[in-house]
Amino acid sequence: MPGISDLPVEVFEFVVAELPSSSLASALRINSHFYTLALRVLYRTINQDVIKDFNLARSLRFLESITTHAFAFGVRNPFNLVQTLHLDFARNRVTANLLRLIQRALHKLTALKELSLEFSLHDNHYPISWLLEGCTFQLRMLATSLRCDQQLANFLERQINLRELCLRGFQTTAPFVLSSEALPKLTSFRAVHAGVPVLEAIIKDRMIESVSLSLFMEDGFAPLDTLKLSKARIKRLTIMSLDTTTPATLIPEVTARAPHLEALHIVVLMARYDEETLLATTQCLRPFKGLRYLTLMTGGTPPDSGDESVVTRAWAKACPTLRTIILPQGKVWFERNGNWLCCA
Question: Which InterPro entries does this entry report, sorted A to Z (predicted)?
């Protein structure tokens, strides 16, 4: 009869991966087999938001250990196992020495696949993307608050395996130019502060299917025009609007540029919509032929959107493909056997 030792190594790794991080140190000491598995799991993801007590001091010690630790011949370097790294300095003002330390650490993490780098609003106004120069890893996901300038574009130019990109940095008047061959595998792009030039540089002639962007009053609907530049149909769209545009005005602009959406999420930060305003949007949904998920949220004071069940049924009638609707009150409406139910 097969014993536990006959199980595939993937099963053991799955079990070890389910252990809390505090138990991995014990797993390292079981035997050489578990040492290899636990080491791989322990170093695979370094995330300040997940690891308990991973504060600024520990972050600095971790970065320094990457750059200074020497391993004897035949001893595996655990830093070569790191695939996901999340560093958040949004609450701190970084120095040039710290930036150079981050750069040296990134040079050592050759197996990195996912990288998240966050800096403060103050630091994001400065050209510090040079810290990515010389990195040899090939990412699948990058999320960063670094400002959108040519230094960052030059780094992206070399990332041939990147599939997900999130740019939360400011757009500048400096160039942000990518060649047509850059980012050949990119399918998902999220931007927070980026305007039309950056959106166009990223989306144009690439197989982008998922986009998140912001609409600023001074830009009008010009950012939405960039959706038409993708070589693929846009299936998922998230919009953060910083004006008082009504959904009856905004949604037709969306359907004109992305009629094949499967998911549409809209957050309007400076408006409040009542039931009448929401019902006035009903006919705007008819052009969508495959829309399944629709979210419309507002910011500010608590919403007074009336009886949202009435709105939900009207929208579902206008767009029969809808399966989930979230309205300003935050309730989740879903279709079940032809009926629309609410999950508050």
Answer: LRR_dom_sf
- Alpha carbon 248 to its chain's center: 28
Question: How many Å apart are CA 35 and CA 15, to the nearest integer?
Answer: 13
Question: Distance (Å, rounded) from C-alpha 199 to C-alpha 192?
Answer: 10
Is the pTM for the entire model greater than 0.85? yes
- DSSP assignment, residue 262? S
197 has pLDDT over 90: yes
Amino acid 100 reads R
Average pLDDT of 152-173?
94
Q: Are 313 and 328 in contact (CB under 8 A)?
A: no
Q: How far is CA 337 from CA 223, 275, 323, 340, in A?
A: 38, 25, 11, 8
Decide which of 337 and 222 is more confident: 222
261 & 303 share domain: yes
- For 241, the domain range is 223-344
SS3 2: coil
Write the burial class of residue 337 (CB in 10 Å: 0-12 exposed, 13-18 middle, 19+ buried).
exposed
Looking at this protein, which amino acid is placed at residue 37? L
